[in-house]
Fold:
Amino acid sequence: MSNHQVSSQYTHTPDLLSLEGLDDFLCGLIDELFHVEAEGPQENSSRAELALIENDIIDDIENNDRGNVVSALPGLFARSAAAAKSIDERPSLFEGDADTNQWLLRVKLLESQLDYRTNELQESLRRMRWLENELASREDQVKYLPELLKRSVDATRYELELDDLKLKLEFLTSELSSANEQLATIKANWLGRLSLWLASKKADMERTEQPICEASD
Structure:
């Protein structure tokens, strides 16, 4: 220690070429050596104390709350995991909170439902227009309905008259058939042929007498 006190008195630059300068240089080296050896145990004790403090802190973290552990985020002062979680859960100025996001989702759902209902309404309107066009065409057809009814009545009447004419024709056909049969029977007998000849002559005489009467008048 005496060497340290003696060497500390020298503040000027030592002259290494002289004996005094060499002595001062050696004394300074010895003082530095003893100073390092003296500080060594003190540093070891401070390291032991720091290790004990670190162990106590780790025990407190493991026993009490793991959320306050300092996170590994970049930066000089990294916030703990609990602080980071609370900050993440805190609403931001640049991002909507959970309630706002829920309302936005509900609004989008309502908009999609409204679009679906709008499409259904448009489809219903198209169907109504198609029905209106069909009704208009049916109304045009209804205008011709009285004429069609009249024609159907006339057709029914004509059909009935045609059936009546068919019946009359059948009756006349049967009468003609019976007359032909009677004529054939008369022609088969000589008396019948004679009566036919007399009837034809009488008819000729009547035809000739009629112009004479008209001329005399």
About this structure: The CA atoms of residues 177 and 188 lie 17 Å apart. Confidence is low (pLDDT under 50) at residues 1-12, 36-40, 65-69.
